[in-house]
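Subgroup meeting minutes
Present: P.N., E.W., G.H.
Scribe: E.W.

1. P.N. recapped why we're keeping a running log of single-chain structure predictions: easier to compare across weeks, and new members can see raw inputs and outputs side by side.
2. G.H. added today's entry (137 aa).
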Amino acid sequence: DQHGSRFIQQKLESATVPEKMMVFKEIYPHALPLMTDVFGNYVIQKFFEHGTLEQKRLLGEALVGHVLTLSLQMYGCRVVQKAVEVIPPEQQAQLVSELQGHVMKCIKDQNGNHVIQKVIEQVPAPYTQFIVDTFVN
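Output recorded in log:
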């Protein structure tokens, strides 16, 4: 619920690594549904901001195969944007590749267009050439 979500978000900002690990162990099995939840998406975003490198990597892996669906969803698109801000370029490349062939669909979508903008801002150019190519062709 909203209060639980806010409580976890606030605690994550100053939590120790063992405390983060304890919370992560509980939320990780539910990461995908939390990403599209009105309150849960904020907890996932906080883990992308304040989690350990391993936690960020694992959450990035949880996005694999779901990037397009999440990008077109009101809360999921925020999680994808946050992920793209903080994960390493190799993982960015893997996630962004899922948008190939769907650029126009994303751009025309009220949520997806924000993801495309974030990708252009954050992801190294070689991995985003397909976005440029969409407009050239």
